[in-house]
Specification:
By secondary structure, the chain is α/β, with parallel strands linked by helices. The chain has two domains: 38-120 and 232-275, D-Maltodextrin-Binding Protein, domain 2; 122-225, Periplasmic binding protein-like II (D-Maltodextrin-Binding Protein, domain 2). The protein has nine helices and 13 strands. It has helices at 9-26, 44-57, 59-62, 76-82, 94-104, 146-158, 208-213, 247-256, 259-269; strands spanning 38-42, 66-70, 88-92, 108-118, 122-124, 139-143, 163-164, 177-179, 185-189, 203-206, 224-225, 235-240, 274-275. A six-stranded mixed β-sheet has the order 2-1-3-12-4-13, with helices on both faces. It has a five-stranded mixed β-sheet with strand order 9-6-10-5-11. A two-stranded antiparallel ribbon has the order 7-8. Residues 1-23 form the signal peptide. Belongs to the nlpA lipoprotein family. Keywords: Lipoprotein, Membrane, Palmitate, Signal.
Length: 277
């Protein structure tokens, strides 16, 4: 996930109008035709690549006509599902989806038993090789969407450079930092911009998919990275509530958690993406 969009108040207003129209019955239920193509929105790396592998290697045998539609932001895949432009999406983790539904009045849900992978969040730097080497007053770029910013701060806390207030959850911001011995300065940027910021900041906390697109590996290049153990940020297949039992969705969920996909993830990403099933 992933994973924030470039959108304005006007776009949000238009989206709200569209959602209202959808709620009034403009949405077409493509799930009524089990033979229709299943349209799935995804961010390009690794989700789009995993779906393309399924489309090319596994879907035909399973009797699934799969269409992959790629987006580079973290909002459009959800609005497209809500509005019925696509049938499902694959790009996000549960804390992000919970926050998105709450803020946008949407009713998108995770498909049962379809959590596919984790992209470990990593800290990258062109100037230091350890977080403890950051100088006082150093600037650290973090994602500016609610859940991934909190996730970034928790990663920094886990590595001992800051301490958050007790009980802070998935909506932590720099205002929730209780201790900051190095007086780190935080630069909040859209997740997609973080790799490009590395030359302008002392370190950046980058989502796994955007790191991969920038040829950065959490396993090899990060100076600190999340542990996959008990991690709540696994990416899953999601649909508009009520479409969980669409037979096409069930077919894709089974393929996404198949041994073939697990091997594809292990072989292609070498630890930068970790299977979560």
């Amino acid at each position: 996930m992933r994973n924030t969009a470039k959108f304005t108040t006007a776009v949000l207003a238009a989206g709200a109008l569209t959602l209202g129209l959808t709620a009034c019955g403009s949405d077409k239920d493509s799930g009524s035709d089990a033979s229709a193509p299943l349209k799935v929105a995804a961010t390009p790396t690794p989700q789009g690549e995993i779906l393309t592998y399924i489309k090319d290697k596994l879907a035909k045998k399973a009797g699934l006509d799969l269409e992959v539609k790629e987006f580079t932001d973290y909002v459009t895949p959800n609005t497209a599902v809500q509005q019925g432009e696509v049938d499902a999406n694959y790009f996000q983790h549960q804390p992000y989806l919970d926050d998105f539904n709450k803020k946008n009045g949407t009713d998108i849900v995770a498909v049962p038993n379809a959590t596919v992978h984790l992209e470990p969040l990593g800290v990258y730097s062109q100037g230091v090789k350890k977080l403890t080497d950051l100088k006082k007053g150093a600037t650290v770029a973090v994602p500016n969407d609610t859940t991934n910013e909190a996730r970034a701060l928790k990663l920094l806390e886990a590595n001992g450079v800051i301490k958050l207030k007790a009980g802070v959850g998935y909506d932590a911001t720099p205002k929730d930092i209780a201790s900051n011995p190095k007086n780190l300065q935080f630069k909040e940027l859209e997740a997609a911009q973080l790799p490009r910021s590395l030359g302008d900041v002392d370190a950046a906390v980058i989502n796994g998919n955007y790191a991969l697109e920038a040829d950065l590996s959490p396993a090899k290049d990060a100076i600190a990275a999340e542990s996959p153990k008990d991690n709540p940020y696994g990416n899953f297949l999601a649909v508009k509530k009520g479409n969980e039992d669409d037979p096409r969705v069930k077919k894709l969920a089974k393929l996404l958690t198949s041994p073939e996909v697990k091997k594809f993830i292990e072989d292609k990403y070498d630890g930068a993406v970790v299977a979560a099933f």
